[in-house]
Design goal:
Rossmann fold; 13 helices; about 400 residues; seven-stranded parallel beta sheet; globular; alpha/beta
Length: about 400
């Protein structure tokens, strides 16, 4: 079985949520025996190492030349039209692949990179994996105190893109409802497909000593929302210098090179190749995210490692939890929560909550994927070695 996947972004390294999303979904499909034909649309320069990693991961890889930032159109003063960033060469390439291979499913990552679906055969199921809500995104960013960045369009333009698909995939249910309100195309929710890798919890080993420092970790990319969130954390911690005597704060990911990290109480670790090792070194993980769209993959990732998570309600959008530690308003409330928590009990309870939440979440996403790809999941499961034998 063959699945054609297009994306304007690469899949490697796994240092951004969108890359993690695409990789997790495609690997889950591969695990069921699918061959992935991956087209990278050239939104950014691709160093040789990244290209090699992608070619080692996917069955068939096609890489288009990068197009420069100055070549990206913005047809309207305040927003983009749906195809402003589309690369016509993608359609040429997808048509050639569709003529050559028996493709069973088509998946376009991002609604604004979906024009090629218009020429795909009608009898092949066509999906748009949206990642985020881009209609009126510029207005939401402005309301959150951030300048418009990356791609943003209108609700009407976004609906044009949705209408190209047989099914629109939303990454979380709140956005699915908003998308369904503007298109007749069915919208389904498929969250981040992640395999739990629970680390030993504090109930399974010696609990942290109240006299020892507790390690608090934050892993994030350098996008503007994460930078704003880190700045808010820095400001909140500045009001509670006593916490630096009780906690050590660790920062990982490309955000370490951002301006917001220049003056911070967090120890900067930079990009870490082994996420598991980072979470293993943390007692608590925080996500002070405010605003934004999509699913905060770093929240579900931290819980998939079984770590206690302290997060804002925005950071938990699309993840079902009523735990007080997951319903905080902002960075200031996160700092207050850390200051007042019963460490041993809160960490142990948080770890158990993470396990419970992730186990439910995985069941839900597995069911959604089986519904989306029935031709793949209804077959007798075989290993990739057996399929290639």
């Amino acid at each position: 079985m063959h699945i054609l996947v297009t994306s304007p972004t690469p899949t490697h390294p796994q240092d951004h949520g969108n890359r993690a999303r695409i990789t997790a979904l495609c690997k889950a499909l591969q695990a069921q025996g699918a061959e992935i034909h991956y087209i990278y649309g050239g939104l950014e320069q691709l160093p040789e190492k990244q290209e090699l990693e992608m070619r080692e991961t996917w069955d068939h890889v096609h890489i288009l030349p990068p197009y420069q930032i100055e070549d990206r159109k913005q047809s309207h003063k305040k927003h983009h039209l749906i195809d402003d960033w589309y690369v016509d060469a993608v359609t040429t390439l997808t048509n050639r692949i569709l003529d050559t291979w028996c493709i069973d499913y088509c998946i376009a990552n991002y609604v604004w990179f979906s024009q090629w679906l218009e020429t795909a055969p009608r009898d092949i199921p066509k999906y748009i994996d949206t990642h985020d809500l881009f209609g009126e995104r510029h207005q939401r960013l402005k309301a959150d105190g951030l300048p418009a960045s990356w791609f943003s369009t209108t609700t009407k333009e976004e609906a044009k893109g949705f209408d190209r698909a047989d099914t629109v995939i939303a990454i979380q249910s709140q956005e699915a409802a908003l998308m369904q309100a503007v298109t007749d195309t069915p919208v389904v929710t498929l969250g981040h497909f992640i395999k739990p890798d629970f680390l030993p919890g504090h109930r399974e080993q010696e609990a942290p000593n109240n006299d020892a420092k507790i390690a608090v970790g934050y892993m994030a990319s350098d996008n503007p929302i994460n930078q704003q969130s880190l700045t808010a954390m820095n400001e909140a911690l500045a009001t509670r210098p006593d916490l630096l005597g009780r906690f050590t704060f660790k920062l990982a990911g490309s955000i370490c090179s951002a301006t917001a990290a220049a003056d911070t109480p967090f120890k900067k670790l930079g990009f870490v190749d082994n996420a598991r090792a980072f979470y293993e070194a943390c007692d608590i993980v925080i996500n002070p995210n405010i605003g934004g769209t999509g699913l905060k993959i770093k929240s579900i990732e931290a819980m998939a490692f079984g770590r206690a998570l302290v997060a804002t309600s925005d950071a938990m959008a699309g993840i079902d939890s009523q735990l007080p530690a997951h319903c905080l308003k902002d960075a200031a409330q996160i700092v207050d929560f850390l200051a007042n928590m019963n460490l041993k009990q809160a960490i142990a309870d948080g770890e158990q909550a993470s396990r419970d939440i992730v186990e439910r979440y995985v069941v839900e996403q597995t069911a959604a994927m089986q519904t989306l790809f029935p031709k793949l999941f209804n077959r007798k499961a075989r290993t990739r070695t057996e399929l290639k034998a």
